[in-house]
Amino acid sequence: MNSSLISYPQTWSGTADGVAACGAGDGAVIVWRGGCAAPLRVLRAHLSEVCSVDWPRAHLLSASWDTTVKLWDPEAEVCLSTFAGHSQLVLSCDWSRMETHALATAGSDGLIRGWDLRRLTSPMFTLKGCECAVRRVQFSPHAPSVIAAVSYDFTTRIWDLKRGCDPLETIRHHSEFTVRYGYMETGYGKKEKVWRYLEY
């Protein structure tokens, strides 16, 4: 298969009804409108696969195997900023729904980096603890200081930045890679685990 045909999970625009974006194997970010076969826009600047996009606001985030994260104005088809804080593939990016300027990235180096859009020269925090690549990172939609991540070490970890940079909880209930976390875990092991955290 041509790598350009590989696409990753989409994210819906937070400002444009019926419009979504996904990353592609050739480094493109493809913007679609539901019901249309042809893409609205194709954003190109990454040098390798784009495996994570997030688009809750007018601008869009993309994370790539080229070790960078890019901030886009998709309407103008312009890359506004490029920042790098990982030594290996960047596998996930997330834009806080509660804090306008807060971003998080995660990658094959096992690290989670936090960023402030107003100052992208260096991370505002680094979270460690995962023993393998971090496949997905996500801010809590209920508490701006809480972050969860799933790793190829079969764990889900939760941090509360108000309590420091050590994991608040480590959940070990999958026997295969944990690949997604949306306040529900899903893994390759044919099981889903549902957890309830009242404070999150």
UniProtKB/TrEMBL annotation:
<keyword id="KW-0677">Repeat</keyword>
<dbReference type="GO" id="GO:0005782">
    <property type="term" value="C:peroxisomal matrix"/>
</dbReference>
<dbReference type="GO" id="GO:0005829">
    <property type="term" value="C:cytosol"/>
</dbReference>
<keyword id="KW-0853">WD repeat</keyword>
<dbReference type="InterPro" id="IPR015943">
    <property type="entry name" value="WD40/YVTN_repeat-like_dom_sf"/>
</dbReference>
<feature type="repeat" description="WD">
    <location>
        <begin position="83"/>
        <end position="118"/>
    </location>
</feature>
<dbReference type="Pfam" id="PF00400">
    <property type="entry name" value="WD40"/>
</dbReference>
<feature type="repeat" description="WD">
    <location>
        <begin position="127"/>
        <end position="164"/>
    </location>
</feature>
<dbReference type="InterPro" id="IPR044536">
    <property type="entry name" value="PEX7"/>
</dbReference>
<dbReference type="InterPro" id="IPR001680">
    <property type="entry name" value="WD40_rpt"/>
</dbReference>
<dbReference type="InterPro" id="IPR019775">
    <property type="entry name" value="WD40_repeat_CS"/>
</dbReference>
<dbReference type="InterPro" id="IPR020472">
    <property type="entry name" value="WD40_PAC1"/>
</dbReference>
<dbReference type="GO" id="GO:0016558">
    <property type="term" value="P:protein import into peroxisome matrix"/>
</dbReference>
<keyword id="KW-0653">Protein transport</keyword>
<feature type="repeat" description="WD">
    <location>
        <begin position="43"/>
        <end position="82"/>
    </location>
</feature>
<keyword id="KW-0963">Cytoplasm</keyword>
<comment type="similarity">
    <text>Belongs to the WD repeat peroxin-7 family.</text>
</comment>
<dbReference type="GO" id="GO:0005053">
    <property type="term" value="F:peroxisome matrix targeting signal-2 binding"/>
</dbReference>
<keyword id="KW-0576">Peroxisome</keyword>
<protein>
    <recommendedName>
        <fullName>Peroxin-7</fullName>
    </recommendedName>
</protein>
<dbReference type="InterPro" id="IPR036322">
    <property type="entry name" value="WD40_repeat_dom_sf"/>
</dbReference>
<keyword id="KW-0813">Transport</keyword>
